[in-house]
Specification:
CATH architecture: Alpha-Beta Barrel
Strand order of the largest sheet: 4-5-6-7-8-9-10-11
Shape: globular
CATH superfamily: Aldolase class I
Structural class: alpha/beta
Number of helices: 14
Strand content: 5-15%
CATH topology: TIM Barrel
Order of helices and strands: HEEEEHEHEHEHHEHEHHHEHEHHHE
Number of domains: 1
CATH class: Alpha Beta
Helix content: 40-55%
Distance between the termini: 54 Å
Number of strands: 12
Length: 346
């Protein structure tokens, strides 16, 4: 049985879904930076479009397309419906998937089934998720193991969200000494650890420090999509916090800049591009810039909230868009796209 939405964490989860679906929470001026790039068109691709292969692997697992259903939600009845629909479409198309922060399930084990999707997607690449800052608030290896086991996950995302925590009412803002704790966790946990921002980006300098600490992959989650400063400002009743959300609504490093700067200093780290990606053309640009796979959240959230059919249509469209980019640039595979020089800076 799902309990009423009465805990602070549960209410926050419900608020996040409602605000993201009903309010304008996009960055106001900052973009993901991908509009500054364009593909050079190939008028004679010498390809059969039907033979184009979008298959790839990430952290040792096969993907039918280079798509990650980014971490979003859990902990409420609506979140359960959304996660189950996402899991089913991920299994059908062999996509990767992350769930929202599982802290609420640690606090209230009766909510675990709102995250527990593995039975619906037995073969996909599936990511558990906790806030890294919780390692400074009585969380440790045991809680990390618990959320991985609950999900039967292939890896654990540790999300980094200092700006969100600053603006979130009763946010957790002690980030001191976290890198050493992440380092210990990386070497003691049985699954890979992925470092992920939540929409303000990871710089090359921080990426290098995280890699040195032992993380196995990085999700840049750059600026240009959903502004969690705006989301938390919308939730707040305090006028100061509301203004903080407005002031920092455009804070962060654009996604394209994150990809190129991190890839320049770490050519081999498994890299996820996310942050404001809205279609398959942007996914293809992110891959051409050096990402291995691309994560989307808002498009999947809106489609999953609407219906399973809407979600299926979205995935078909994304795949068709990526395939069209490969065809019209003369590349038969994602590997060829990454090695080509068909993406140009405007």
């Amino acid at each position: 049985m799902i309990l009423p939405v009465n805990s602070t964490t549960q209410r926050r989860k419900a608020d996040h879904i409602r605000i993201c679906l009903d309010e304008d929470v996009n960055f106001r001026q900052t973009t993901n930076g991908l509009e500054r790039y364009r593909f050079q068109h190939c008028c004679l691709p010498e390809l059969d479009r039907s033979e184009i292969d979008l298959g790839s692997s990430f952290l040792g697992k096969y993907l039918g397309a280079p798509l990650l259903i980014s971490s979003m939600t859990g902990g409420t009845d609506l979140a359960k419906t959304i996660n189950y629909r996402l899991a089913e479409v991920a299994q059908q198309y062999k996509l990767a998937m992350g769930v929202g922060s599982q802290r609420v399930a640690v606090e209230n084990p009766q909510l675990a089934d709102t995250f527990a999707v593995r039975s619906l997607c037995p073969n996909i690449l599936l990511f558990a998720n906790l806030g890294a800052v919780q390692l400074n608030y009585d969380y440790g290896l045991d809680q990390c193991r618990r959320v991985v086991e609950l999900l039967e996950a292939d890896a654990l995302i540790l999300h980094l969200n200092p700006l969100q925590e600053c603006i979130q009412p009763q946010g957790d803002t002690n980030f001191k000494g976290l890198l050493d704790k992440i380092n210990i966790l990386c070497y003691k946990l049985s699954v890979p650890v992925i470092a992920k921002e939540v929409g303000n980006g990871i710089s090359a300098t921080m990426a290098q420090r995280l890699i040195n600490a032992g993380v196995s992959a990085i999700d840049v989650a750059g600026a240009g999509g959903t502004s969690w400063a705006k989301v938390e400002g919308e939730r707040a009743s305090d006028a100061v916090v509301q203004q903080l959300g407005k002031t920092f609504a455009d804070w962060g490093i654009p996604t394209a800049e994150c990809i190129t700067s991190i890839r320049a200093i770490a050519p081999n780290i498994p890299l996820i591009a996310s942050g404001g990606l809205r279609n398959g053309l942007e996914v293809a640009k992110a891959i051409a810039l050096g990402a291995d796979i691309a994560g989307l959240a808002m498009p999947f959230l809106k489609a999953a909230n609407e219906s399973a059919d809407a979600l299926d249509s979205l995935v078909q469209l994304l795949i068709a868009e990526i395939t069209t980019v490969l065809f019209c640039t003369g590349n038969a595979t994602l590997s060829q796209l990454k090695k080509s020089d068909c993406l140009q800076h405007n």
